[in-house]
Amino acid sequence: MELSIPRSSCAVPSTIPQRLKSSSCNDNRLKLIKPTTAKNNVKSSNVFPSKRPTNKSNLIPARLGKSRFSKSLLYCQLHERNSIEVRAEVESGGDSDSVFAKISRFGSTYYKFMRPYGMLYAIISATCLFARVFIEDPRLFTWSVLFKAFCGLIACIFAGAYVNGINQIYDIDIDRVNKAYLSIPAGDLSLTQAWFLVMFDLAASVLILRFMKPDLITTSLAFLFLFLGTFYSAPPFRFKRSSIATIIVLPLASCVIHNVGILYTTRASLGLPFLWSPPVVFITTFGTLFSMVLSITKDIVDVKGDMKFNIRTFAAIFGSRNIAFVGTVLLLVNYTGAIVAGIYMPRFNCYYEVNY
């Protein structure tokens, strides 16, 4: 591509020697050449932004005779503009890669990997069961017990994060089909990083439990929960491959073991014998039925990936529409039963007096 420029544009000051005048105006044609780029690969379009593709600032003489003055002048101007752009790019890159930015990105990725919305039931139920014990006898409340209960809640959160992480690691192929937005399929975390995080969650949960100095029953219930949560997703058992195993393991781990463990641990820490009060029976029954409905309906959105990898869920066997209908009916039965129990069985919604 060539651009013709009149001779008048080649005029130079009189202070420049005559030999430079003749050599710089020997050729009336200037060729369009891409400007040199800096070492960090800054594009010329960013260095000289312009709507017109043939901006004069982008023109470099291809043949200027033997004039070193003209060549140096144009190349110095170009180099100065490139340097300014390079410094701007480096400064902006340094800000994005600051320590605070890295920590913020890691925290956001870890939070997404934990899937905390999946642990809301465990957090709410643990808090309610703990409060239920003190409602029965407020005289038992002490700040030391509250601190110990808070540590136990943190241990439950780390245990839930571990179980969710293990599920994402072993379901990575399925999640690429069903949930490509998750941390590992989306490329936010590598498998090595994911394994590091789940091992951290497991270690934190066990160490906090050890710090609380639990008895044998509490320890056994905690490790039974971790066992079922691990082998729900991991081989050799991989309970999720069977719809029957799923409807047994999930309510057993997430509701029965969790509720019994929280209730027993709270009472044991107060030196009280284990006792099922009517409100606790109601909470556990309602939660277990709700968990069973969740275990058969949660796979409705995952049918495509489950069928591809031969995961025999109820939704994959009977169809998403049928399972959604069955789940809705079961939820209506569960909530209706809760309303009826509250009306005709008042012991479920009043304080339970215990003689110690």
Can you walk through the features of this model?
There is one protein chain. This protein has 356 residues and is mostly helical. It has 14 helices and two strands; from the N terminus they run βαβααααααααααααα. A two-stranded antiparallel sheet has the order 1-2. α11 packs antiparallel against α14 (320-344). Residues 1-73 and 351-356 have low confidence and may be disordered.
List the helices and strands and how they pair.
Layout: E1 2-4, H1 18-24, E2 29-31, H2 44-47, H3 68-96, H4 99-114, H5 120-136, H6 143-170, H7 172-178, H8 191-211, H9 216-231, H10 243-269, H11 278-297, H12 303-308, H13 314-318, H14 320-344
Antiparallel strand pairs: 1-2
Helix pairs in contact: 5-6, 5-10, 6-8, 9-10, 10-11, 11-14
